[in-house]
Amino acid sequence: MDLDFNDHNFKLLLHTEKIYNTRINYFVVFQSIFFASYFNMVKHEQLNYPMSQKYIFLSIAILLTIIWIIIDCRTYRIIGMMKKRCEENHIKFVSLNNCVPINFFTGIIIPFVLFLMWVVFLIIEIVL
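Structure (tokenized):
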């Protein structure tokens, strides 16, 4: 392969991985805001928030988490394919394992845990 093509593949891989990490940070911030808002609603039960407002709020949080899971799984798969392509082309700029960490925990596991958390909160609101 041409050196410029390999350099382009490697730079594209690093750029995609940076976007992936930035996107994770944005979604974590959104989830934190939703989490704080929900517990503020629960804390101030005496204000008598309508139940429909809580259902809508939890539904939006679940929808945001589902979008996060879909986007992260797709991007995680794309980064894996790009990393494989770089390894097939024997790109030896630096060790890809040290340079392009794909953080499975923050990218894949945490969104699923947060999804389960929001579903449990919705079930608790429905039951109580």
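The mean pLDDT is 82. The CA atoms of residues 5 and 80 lie 18 Å apart.
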